[in-house]
Prior knowledge:
The structure holds 2 protein chains of 2 kinds. Chain A is of the alpha+beta class.
Amino acid sequence: MDRASVLSGAPFKSAVIGASLIFALLIFAGAVSFRVVQAAMLGALERQLAAEQLLLADLYRQSGTAGLAHAIEQMDARTEAAPRALGLFGEAGVKLAGNVEAAPARVGVARARLALRPGAEPEGYYVSTAHLDRLVVVVGRSLAPVLAAERALAIVLAITVGVTTLATVAVGYRFSAQSHRKLAAIGDALDQVAGGEMAARLPVGPDNDQIDRIARQINGHLDRLSVLMHSTRTAAAAIAHDLKTPLSRAFLALQEARARIERGEPAEAELDQTERDLDEMNAIFDTMLRVARIEAGSLPAAAPVIDLAPVAADVAETMAAVAEEAGRRLVLETEPGLRAEAHGDARMVGQALVNLIQNAVLHTPSGAVIRVRAMATEEGAVLVVEDDGPGIPANKRGEVLDPFVRLDAARSTRGSGLGLTLVKAIADHHHAALRLEDAGPGLRAVLQFPPV
Amino acid sequence: MKILLAEDDERMAEFIRRGLIEDGHQVDHVGDGREALTHCLYNAVDLVILDRMMPGMDGIAVVKALRAAKQDLPVIFLTALGDVDDRVAGLTAGGDDYLPKPFHFSELRARIGALVRRPRERREVTELKVHDLTLDLLSRTARREGQVIELLPREFALLEVLMRNAGRVVTRTMLLEQVWDYSFEPNTTVVETHVSRLRAKIDRPFAVPLIHTVRSTGYSLHGPR
């Protein structure tokens, strides 16, 4: 795996940033703890020294200068594990007793580097200086334990900071590597799809993290793409056949017209036929274009709410006349005063109804009854166009929605076979379901719209 | 009329030109959008027939420029794009009519006739009258010889289109566009059926027929000539 791209990955970068923050915070916290511990230890020392100063002050009051000097010499003589700094000074800083060479200039507590034994290295001491009448008393303790504690604390803090930072960076590296692996797999799968393998899908991991969710989404889109490509291929094949029919008829009619003109005979009928065939082809193209456009887009979220009942009534009024001319009967069966609401485009929905009714007229025998209804159900508005003709066999109801498919019996009748395709496209556009059911006998076409 | 024909397809242009000249119009032809715009701005033109897709400047842009220059001359779009959205786009841009290709020449002729009348009047009219037939657009009633005639909504709309174009030929396609706005199958009888019902209501009971069929073109509503 390419280390450079793992290092440039977002998880790694966030881990580095996190680690830097932790590092800075720990350093800060460490410094504060350090200071606190140091202050505590020095505070304890200070109290100890203050107690000793009180003791010596007592001695002075009891035994005077000489007694104090003697006591100090005594104390200094005793060898202890931790030698104390002691000093008694008189007027003008003359040393009277003890192991400190000179009195510190100021009263109070301070650090000092002292060599208490001749020839010894100076060491760190914490020293308290006080005045007793005209005397200066100096008491001090070694800082060695404090320094040792400070060193230990520093080491612990350093180790903690170091380990934490490294651990954070390591975790970041691991996660970056993991997502890098996933993304590489996705990239490979997409390359496959781009290369023409429409069946390839992206791997989806078990973690359900963001990458997995996106992979699942993309797979959904690839599924849809496959369906569209399949229907495009099917349509392209069907076009070749269905447009060739009127095209061939037109050719034949023109040739016949030519022959008649050469013979000096009128060719009106043949030329009219040619025109009709060209009209048919033109209508096919227009509908194909319309279907393609409707399929390419989808109803905008802000589509207005329309009442489908008047749309059905309007189409029924228009088509009733047409149906009657063709020897069928059209009946509008909507309850009066009903409101059937849906988000949509009234023109498109009306067009879908027109197509369904035209289909019903085309595929029923003379005398058939066609019923049109608008209904309001809990699942949304419903439009129904039902006839009592021969219907469509159950196994053909799916394919009849594919472009240009017509059932064998209907092949000889006019009508482009695109009518139902447009209805399906309009239904999809409205997120509505188109169902073709057996009306026992006859066909029932149902458009179920989603609820408002 | 002086007509400017802007169409880049030579054969189509020749076909239209010849037809218009035979009808007695003067025709100028350009094949490019920019030339069309320039011609309109510097010459007197009564009508423009404008192809939508042209080199140089497309038809929509030409119309927008004309309207922006306060040129009110009538514009008919010719176009292979026949979808309703395209038609709306063309009319919104300022076109007066929109004719999808391929078309019958008689269709173009009828639409030129319909455009030549004054467009201003149309909006404010509340009543249409031809011979003894009146159409009240406010109350949506039709009267002939004083009798009220019951008309269904589409029949009323159909009669309105015929009356607004009184004396002129209205083609089947024009009626389909203006009265219905749905696409019907090519050999549909929608128009014929509704015209015959209209005739049954407003012509047959009376002495003088007003609705006349113009063979292979369309219909025309007028009183006795």
